[in-house]
């Protein structure tokens, strides 16, 4: 079940997940439409484990073909990516993730290539 409010530059919603086992509240706001700079937040509550997760994120277009995104949650997991459209509908993405509260764990790094004819 979902309840949402949408305008041209804002989306807010409440969603009941997993057959009523979780509740998610999310907010997404485009701050600067010209560069698609946006901020967002998501709060998830699990009724079975009584845990909450708060995630904050942002995105920005460096140019019409290149975007950067970043997010961090209350457990210290931080991730970022840069995505570039090098041909029409063909993307290359470089991403990384680190757990800031367990720095001894290995960071994750990814490279993705999406090709469309």
TrEMBL record:
Pfam families given in the database record: Porin_3
Superkingdom assignment: Eukaryota
InterPro entries (alphabetical): Porin_dom_sf (IPR023614), Porin_Euk (IPR001925), Porin_Euk/Tom40 (IPR027246)
Gene Ontology annotations for the cellular component aspect, listed alphabetically: mitochondrion
Family: Belongs to the eukaryotic mitochondrial porin (TC 1.B.8.1) family.
Official protein name in the record: Mitochondrial outer membrane protein porin 1
Species name: Forsythia ovata
